[in-house]
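User: Fold this; tokens only.

Assistant: Input:
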Amino acid sequence: MCGRTSCHLPRDVLTRACAYRDRGGRQRLPEWRQPEKYHPSYNQSPQSCSPVLLSRLHLEKDADSSERIIAPMRWGLVPSWFKEGDPSKLPFSTTNCRSDTILEKRSFKVPLGKGRRCVVLADGFYEWQRCRVSSQRQPYFIYFPQTKAEQPSSGGVTDSAEDWESIWDNWRPLTMAGIFDCWEPPEGGDLLYSYTIITVDSCTSLHDIHHRMPAILDGEEAVTRWLDFGDVPTQEALKLIRPTENITFHPVSPVVNNSRNNTPECLTPLHLVVKKEPKASSSSQKMMQWLATKSPKKDQETPLTDETNTPQWSSQFLPRSPLPAKRGGAGLLVQWLKQEEEEAPEAKRPHSQ
């Protein structure tokens, strides 16, 4: 499956990365529609807007179907036949579309029959591997192998933070096959364009992480044939929907688990993430202050010893009886209360009977 992506590239960088050749062989850059709706993010989740490629013919009558448009669309397809006024009330998930049922479910079969094929753009996507010995899950960032000359030949993993930052100058975006639809509110209003990502069985290298993956269109020819619904019929286009082994990945920080976290740490290789020291809470600071004032003096040369010649400040870690020690700090509390009683003014001490 695919439930989280990253697409943080600036608009101009993403546009250059999507350069293509039209039917006449001319080098072109895709044009943007509603570019103000594109908000770069390291951590995109369903119902957010992501950039997708589509044929210009979908938006302009008599246009060349080989020409491309980039348009931000809502992730999570809202079928054109949906009658409710609130898209969030759709009673089923359309974040992903399984390739094996794409021709069975009405939500996907209808727009596919209209040629509404698109390519979802992303830096890459995230997937979580469930640990076998615990309930914890390790997140991974999955993307195309990058071919920049300066990058090490380790399949995408860099040795330094500087190398990782320099890769983004010529990043190859991940191109995932999708279907989009156009929904008109029953009571009128702006049209809503939304999409779903087609998924397939995982490739060999990803199978240990998850059993499903997006249908990735690897190469310019595959992207062209998927988008050009004017020349490539549905059945021919569906032959492009299959797993690809041309993929790489690396583990990332659990910070990506929370979709509200939108920082470079989400996709930075785990071995390059600088760990921050936890900040002590106010209660911890007060406890440290108490320990500093009530604990034995640091300049004391030798600690006091008891009859067993064991330092008193360390004897609490030794068992005094064969019975298991009880949890808690009752012994320390008694010592502290006794010390407070001895330090109290004589007038306040209780009289012995």
